[in-house]
Design goal:
Layout: E1 19-29, E2 37-42, E3 63-66, H1 76-80, E4 86-88, E5 93-95, H2 105-108, E6 115-118, E7 120-123, H3 124-132, H4 135-141, E8 144-148, H5 156-168, E9 172-177, H6 183-189, E10 195-199, H7 205-212, H8 217-228, E11 233-239, H9 247-258, E12 264-269, H10 277-280, H11 295-306, E13 312-314
Parallel strand pairs: 2-8, 8-9, 9-10, 10-11, 11-12, 12-13
Antiparallel strand pairs: 1-2, 1-7, 3-6, 4-5
Helix pairs in contact: 3-5
């Protein structure tokens, strides 16, 4: 199993020259804030959630994703690899990831699309140009841009530069975050965020550590601070059968929601990662038997949460 380091590599330039690493830019997204939005996915996440459906966003470094089913065994990757990290086998072209430098040569020359570079370095200025290209859509639908991941806060200088640039251009911003960062990082970007999409995995700290690898004390503290300061917040809660759909977890979530100033609550029933993603990154999925909660459980949770007087939505 590949061991992930969640420490973000230093990307020193600041302002519009600030460098960041993103792994996807999704246009006309409907589930990350109001209107149609350009959602930018930052690479790297300090949490290691068992149910993560975007494993390509976990590592803060570029990666090569290999889909063996698409491989036609033409051998071009073997010929072009500058360090001979790829070996032809009977059924596949095997990559030695221990020596692979992720130079991208094999992905550039793979006409079958079996090899894909995950992670693109951009300056804040370059990303802002891509965001601004969708301005007509924002103006027509009341949309904007959303920064997701991974966890955008681990690339704070880059995130802040792009947020400031969006504010200067009058583009609505949303931050889809786990909130797992020092308050100083959150405090430095909050003036430029129009809407927080704040993810709460579990309220019980012991179980949060078990299933995500980190304590939720900082997450909940930052959430309460943002709430007390009056920031618009949509609380988002992934719901996974057998992990956080039990009576205790539901009760804890309802109590938390009742104690906060929120815009709304969104429940995200568990959805598995697209087939083969973990295998393509040479990382095993944690629990292949994970499943979505029963519809009756979701309905009961939504009813409990609605007692707080907030709108509750179940996203599918």
């Amino acid at each position: 199993m590949t061991t992930l380091s969640h420490q973000m590599p230093a990307l020193k330039p600041s302002g519009l020259n600030a460098l960041g690493l993103v792994f996807n830019i999704c246009r006309q997204s409907r589930t990350h804030g109001p209107g149609l939005r350009t959602t930018v996915y930052f690479k790297g996440c300090p949490l290691d959630c068992w149910w993560c459906h975007s494993p390509e966003g976990q590592s803060p470094y570029p990666e090569v994703m290999i889909n063996e089913k698409r491989c036609v065994r033409c051998g071009v990757c073997v010929t072009n690899c500058p360090i001979d990290a790829i070996t032809p086998e009977e059924c596949a072209m095997t990559t030695n990831r221990e020596i692979c430098t992720v130079c991208g040569t094999c992905t550039e020359n793979c006409e079958a699309g079996a090899r894909e570079m995950i992670g693109r370095r951009l300056t804040a200025e370059e990303l802002l140009a891509e965001i601004e290209a969708d301005r007509p859509i924002y103006e027509q639908t009341g949309g904007g841009t959303t920064f997701s991941g991974g966890e955008p806060l681990i690339q704070r200088p880059f995130l802040q530069a792009v947020l400031v640039g969006c504010q200067e251009r009058g583009i609505h911003t949303a931050l889809d975050t786990t909130g797992f960062a020092p308050w100083e990082a959150v405090d430095s970007i909050r003036p430029y965020v129009d809407l927080f999409l704040y993810n709460v995995q579990l309220v019980d700290d012991r179980r949060h550590i078990q299933y995500t690898g980190v304590s939720n004390k900082l997450i909940l503290e930052n959430l309460r601070r943002l709430s007390d300061l009056g920031h618009p917040i949509v609380l988002r809660a992934p719901i996974i059968a057998g992990i956080n759909d039990d009576g205790q977890s539901v009760s804890e979530l309802c109590e938390l929601v009742a104690s906060l100033r929120l815009e709304r609550v969104e429940l995200l029933p568990y959805q598995p990662a697209p087939a083969g993603k973990y295998e393509a990154l040479a990382r095993p999925g944690r629990l292949p038997e994970l499943r979505a909660p029963a519809s009756e459980t979701l309905a009961g949770l939504a009813e409990c949460l609605s007692h707080s007087g907030l709108p509750v939505a179940i996203l599918t």
